[in-house]
Design a protein that fits this description.
alpha+beta; Cytochrome p450; four-stranded mixed sheet; three-stranded antiparallel sheet; binds protoporphyrin IX containing FE
């Protein structure tokens, strides 16, 4: 990328990719950091849904699991543990929101809120040594973070590597212990991973890596999607009255307007012409949920944040915040429930306002909101 382009990208990555799309004359356009992106929504749907580009193992798990079947089983097992843990999430959430300061800095405070509600579901306190849970906590917060959430500076990332190695060693030890003693009904995400890969092909170390991968895949998009929901609703509803939308609609619209996963990549398996460009095996082609959610003609006022659109029939274009097709997110439904619950808890008997908010994202592990301050004012019994 040239210096001017890097500057534009930093200023607003979404505007930047939209400009690339507008300038392109073919069905796909080249990305300056390598690979291509699909311009047209129908072609993007083909890329995400067609068996031609979505057979074999999904890239989401890398090489951690030997078969597609094992990938699906891990996804379903983890989703089931989270679903069963919804009442527990809700109970911790009530306490966490009650203890949230009246003024908090986001997205950091949202990251902490989501992590706190999930911590016992990630590694159950009754069966995990306190030291391992402390390391997991440091992986989220540890000084400047970096193991779970993206750290902006190289020195933070170097420190995170040390912490990551310590966490993996501790969880590997825990895997060994649990495998020796047998895993019954899964009590946390680690149990779910072990239950789904009860095979010698998955070593103790690989199981620990899978746990860390799922830990990130759960906590990171939930946290940033919650932060977007809070920010966008506050920026678009500035009066003193309660928000006019149900929490679920705000979440859906925030996931449309600022989908956290910004490019979904597929590796081209064989020579093919796609969108007017000839691809070779191994080329990377991506669909952009953001561009698909912005397509004029399929959405009314796509560049407006309008949660009420989800009440209007015939309003919807392609909606893919959780991907689509064979490799779509295994946790989509549970993620939407947890987000709506979190937003409901934050707004219950309270008025939310923000200062310093900006709808332009920064690119970290995906589309993440820039820092903003949330003011949460408790309302009296008459709602004032
Ligand atoms: C707001 C929260 C979330 C968002 C926005 C999100 C988004 C996504 C997206 C876009 C994909 C597809 C990637 C692709 O097509 O290449 C994906 C895959 C996946 N997600 Fe999520 N996700 C969220 C939460 C969760 C949760 C809570 C779980 C827990 C079960 C989860 C588990 C998975 C798994 C297992 C896959 C891989 C599916 C496969 O390849 O079989 N996600 N997620």
């Amino acid at each position: 990328m040239r210096i001017g382009e890097t500057r534009q990208f930093r200023r607003d990555p979404l505007e930047y990719i939209d400009n690339l799309r507008c300038r392109s004359t073919t069905g796909v356009f080249r990305l300056p950091w390598g690979g291509y992106c699909v311009r047209d929504t129908d072609l993007a749907q083909t890329l995400l849904r067609s068996p031609e580009y979505n057979s074999g193992r999904s890239g989401f798990f890398g090489d951690l699991l030997p078969t597609r079947r094992a990938q699906v089983e891990v996804g379903h097992a983890v989703r089931n543990v989270l679903r069963a843990g919804e009442p527990q999430y809700r109970a911790v959430l009530t306490r966490a929101v009650a203890e949230l300061p009246a003024v908090s800095r986001w997205p950091a405070a949202g990251n902490e809120l989501v992590y706190r509600c999930l911590t016992d579901l990630l590694l159950h306190p009754g069966i995990t040594p306190a030291r391992t849970r402390r390391l997991m906590r440091q992986a989220v917060h540890g000084g400047a973070g970096g193991v779970v959430f993206h750290a902006p500076h190289a020195w933070q990332r170097a420190r995170a590597e040390v912490l990551r190695a310590r966490l993996l060693a501790a969880v590997t030890e825990q895997v060994r212990h649990r495998r020796e003693h047998g895993v019954g009904e899964p009590r946390d995400v680690l149990d779910a991973v072990l239950d789904a890969c009860a095979t010698d092909e998955v070593t103790d170390r690989t199981a620990a890596e899978l746990h860390l991968m799922m830990f990130r895949a759960i906590v990171v998009p939930l946290s940033s999607s919650l932060a977007w929901s809070v920010l966008l609703a506050c920026l678009h509803h500035t009066s003193d009255s309660p928000w006019p939308w149900p929490a679920g609609q705000v979440v859906r619209e925030a996931l449309r307007y600022r989908p956290m996963p910004w490019l979904l990549g597929r590796t081209i398996p064989h020579p093919v012409e796609f969108g007017g460009v000839a691809f070779r095996p191994g080329d990377l082609l991506s669909a952009s949920p953001y561009l698909m959610h912005q397509e004029k003609g399929r959405w009314t006022d796509p560049d407006a944040f309008r949660p009420e659109r989800w009440d209007e029939p015939g309003e919807h274009g392609s909606y893919v915040p959780f991907g689509a097709g064979p490799f779509a997110c295994a946790g989509a439904a549970v993620a939407q429930t947890l987000l709506a619950e979190s937003l409901t808890a934050l707004t219950r008997d309270a008025r939310l306002t923000v200062t310093g908010g900006d709808t332009r994202p920064v690119m970290a592990e995906g589309n993440v909101p820039r820092p903003f301050t949330l003011h949460r004012t408790e309302l009296d019994t008459e709602g004032r």
